[in-house]
């Protein structure tokens, strides 16, 4: 098993239809507050020997506490033979951190398969979840409003949603489920 914080954006993202996704909400110190059934299954399968079932592995907790992700890796990658688990920060609040987990089976770890959401898409989704309009997000990120719209067009199918309200709900309902 290989644990690798990575921000390499040069590899092609896997087909979202082939990616399995799950959500995890943790406290800033790594205590798991909420996990979808799939996230719970993956965490137990991958890290049962490395950490208690109610906590993130130490390596992921360190990755989360390393900073604001301005210059830090945008995702944490766990490689195992035949599969890769990508952990991406979706939203950070004072008492909780929402993480998107994505796994692609049958992809050799060395082929460079990456998570379906890019760092910028994750950033845009985080602002959508905070209720910002495309124009506001564009101003915050120094991008044009139309560019934000294009990002959202690409994010929606990756999350399996059809609009910004559903995308925001996808992120926010995990924070409420604790």
Structure description:
- There is one protein chain.
- The protein is α+β, with helices and mostly antiparallel strands and 178 residues long.
- 37% of the residues lie in helices and 23% in strands.
- It is built from six helices and six strands, in the order E-E-E-H-H-E-E-E-H-H-H-H.
- Strands 1-4-5-6-2-3 form a six-stranded antiparallel beta sheet, sandwiched between helices.
- A hairpin with a 4-residue loop joins strand 5 and strand 6.
- The chain is globular.
- The two termini are 30 Å apart.
Q: At the third CATH level, what is the topology name?
A: Arc Repressor Mutant, subunit A
What class would the helix/strand composition place it in?
Answer: alpha+beta
Question: What's the domain count?
Answer: 1
Let me know the number of strands: 6
Main sheet properties = 6 strands, antiparallel
N-to-C SSE string, H for helix and E for strand: EEEHHEEEHHHH
- What's the overall geometry? globular
As residue ranges, the low-confidence spans are 1-17, 106-115
How many helix segments?
6
What is the alpha-carbon Rg in Å? 16 Å
CATH class: Mainly Alpha
**Can you give the helix content as a percent range?**
25-40%
CATH superfamily: Winged helix-like DNA-binding domain superfamily/Winged helix DNA-binding domain
Q: Give the CATH architecture.
A: Orthogonal Bundle
Summarize model confidence as the mean pLDDT: 75
Distance between the termini: 30 Å
Strand order of the largest sheet: 1-4-5-6-2-3
Strand content range: 15-25%
């Amino acid at each position: 098993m290989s644990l690798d914080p990575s921000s390499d954006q040069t590899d092609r993202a896997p087909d979202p239809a082939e990616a399995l996704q799950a959500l995890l909400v943790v406290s800033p110190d790594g205590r798991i507050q909420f996990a979808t059934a799939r996230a719970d299954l993956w965490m137990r399968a991958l890290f049962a020997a490395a950490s208690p079932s109610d906590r993130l592995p130490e390596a992921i907790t360190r990755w989360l506490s390393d900073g604001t992700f301005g210059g830090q890796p945008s995702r944490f990658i766990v490689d195992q033979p035949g599969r890769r688990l990508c952990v991406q920060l979706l939203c950070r609040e004072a008492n909780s951190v929402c993480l998107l987990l994505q796994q692609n089976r049958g992809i050799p770890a060395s082929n460079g398969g990456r998570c379906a959401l890019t760092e910028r898409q994750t950033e845009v989704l985080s602002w959508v979840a905070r209720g910002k309009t495309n124009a506001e997000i564009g101003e915050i990120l120094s991008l044009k409003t139309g560019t934000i719209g294009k990002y959202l067009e690409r994010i929606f199918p990756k999350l399996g949603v059809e609009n910004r309200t559903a995308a925001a709900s996808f992120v926010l309902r995990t924070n409420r489920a604790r």
